[in-house]
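Risk register update: the risk of archive-format incompatibility is retired. Evidence:
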Amino acid sequence: ALSPTAYSDKISINNANLALIDQSKLGISSTVKPLISTPPQINHTNNADNSSWVYYGQCDSTWGNNELGTCDTQTICTAGCAMSSVAMMLATNGVDVNPGTLNSWLDSNGGYAYGCDIVWASVDAFGVSSFQGIEEADESSICNGLSAGHGIIANVHNGAHWVLLTGCLGNGEFSVNDPYYSTTSYSINDILQEAVYH
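Archived output:
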C-alpha cells in the first residue's frame, strides 16, 4: 500500500485515490527537496515521558491570519490544524518553530502540495523526526509509540481536523494538544488515522 505524503486539514486522500494521481505532474516529489533556507536551530531533547508537549493555538493572533501556504482563501486559523500540530511536535523536540515560522518554511521549501496540504515528510529535514506514514493503529500501538516519544498526529472529527496526541489515559482515551478546539482528549473511536513520526 502507498503511504500518502500530503494531507489537507480539511480533506484526506486515501491510499487508493493517491495511487491514481500522477504526482510528478503536480510538482510533488516523494523525496524532500533540497533546502532553500536553513532549518531553525535544533536543541535535541528526549520527550519520552510525554510530560512537556509544547502547545500552539492555530488562531493565535501572532500567526492566525497568515495565509496557509499559497492558498489565498485559507489562513492558519481556518485550516492550519495539521501544520500547527506538526509545529508542536517539532518544537517539543527542540526545533525553534511555531505555526507562523513553520508555515513560512514549508512554503519556501516544498512543504505543501496543492498550495496548502502539508507534505508530512518535508519536516524530516529538521533532523529530529522521520515520517513513517499514515497508519490506523490500535490503542496499544499508539500508547507504545507515545511512550517511546514518537510524534503522533491524529485525524479526528470525521477527517476534518488534526491534533497532536500527547498521552494515553486508558480505556481508549488519549490526551491531546488540539490547536483549534478546547478539547483535551479524544477516544480511539474518534480517530480515523494517524500521521506517525519516529
